[in-house]
């Protein structure tokens, strides 16, 4: 299995190369040279076994299936629910796919736990040590910290926007006590953090010097790992499913598209990307124009993103894998802040099964109140964006599955504001407040972040 860049100017690599590099040397994102055909899981097949089988199809000869079975069993053994991603019925023909049973109560755990296992496996085999950088709008950083804390062969640097994530989200990042984890709070928004990460990867000398890697949703292994719960949902419910996916960087929704391309969703594929008032993705799908706008703060901060990185992978597919068209589009976007998609891409977007819609702040809070009244359940504001969007969809025979991306306990202030009730904080999260936080506040500049990374790399080698 070989991997190529969406921008067409990087050499092909294997799964290990794509996974450990994160971003391709030409600034593009890695995708498989062709999508493997994978047999759908059988009803009742254990999640870890399904994950090992799907990841094996993407890993090829890089990691033997038997080794992946061990890694997946270890990764998913940390989850509080034995199904890992259980389905619960929330209404007539409507389900929640609960993705928040991992160590940090968010869907990012599902991919990050196995990625940490894969990294340590690959780096142990090569004898290397890597510097992993991660920009986060809230949940990715905590999931990465939990997964990589104490890793034998990796250091982790987390960039998060100062005071633009929830206190509990921050605690998951800043209380590991691990010497190999550095937390940098930047005076900016998530897009500033993400841009710095991408610019760092653009300096190939720096990448080589500090052995840089990335585990944002730009990392193909993240997308591959997230495709698993689409497959297990299809196996459990059967028939035609309609997914609603709270979306920021679009990695989660893209994972559904990948699952469909690999034959894991025999019932067909339809997914709506539900975004908040940062509606760049919705405008992109509905107007065919990619435009930049500063991210605004919302009750669903992990989705406060104005540049959905994984759309690049979808653009690559709908242009017929035309790397020149992708590269030109993103070059123009970088220069002008707005660019129309190629005509062929606009005409094919509707054939992908993906679409997008936006929910405003007041409707998000109202949805949290309404959902509590209907079910007795507290949901997080990101999940509420999904359930609110699901209400707007036309009637269908398809079963609607909303991805519940985080536990309500990660956003207690917002949940209480919306519903008047405080969510119960699980014991594993409640203990964090008693631990000392460690993070550094930094200006949102490439130079400042690079200097801090080089300082740590020099001390650790």
The CATH class of the domain at 87-105 and 220-419 is identified as Alpha Beta
The CATH topology of the domain at 87-105 and 220-419 turns out to be Rossmann fold
Shape: globular
CATH architecture annotation of the domain at 87-105 and 220-419: 3-Layer(aba) Sandwich
**Side-by-side strand order of the widest sheet:** 3-4-14-9-10-13
* Overall number of strands: 15
Distance between the termini: 33 Å
Structural class: alpha/beta
Approximately how much beta-strand content do the residues carry? 15-25%
Mean pLDDT: 94
Q: How much is the radius of gyration in Å?
A: 20 Å
Q: Quick one: biggest sheet?
A: 6 strands, mixed
Helix content: 40-55%
Uncertain runs with pLDDT below 50, 5 residues or more?
none
How many H/I helical runs?
Answer: 19
Task: Report on this structure.
- By secondary structure, this protein is α/β, with parallel strands linked by helices.
- The protein contains 19 helices and 15 strands.
- It has a six-stranded mixed β-sheet, with helices on both faces. A five-stranded parallel β-sheet has the order 8-5-6-7-15, sandwiched between helices.
- Helix 10 links the parallel strand 9 (241-246) and strand 10 (271-275).
- The longest helix is centred in the first third of the chain and has 19 residues, at 108-126.
- It is globular, with a radius of gyration of 20 Å.
- The model has no long low-confidence stretch (mean pLDDT 94).
Key features of this structure:
461 residues, alpha/beta, Rossmann fold, 6-stranded mixed β-sheet, 5-stranded parallel β-sheet, 19 helices, 15 strands, 45% helix, globular
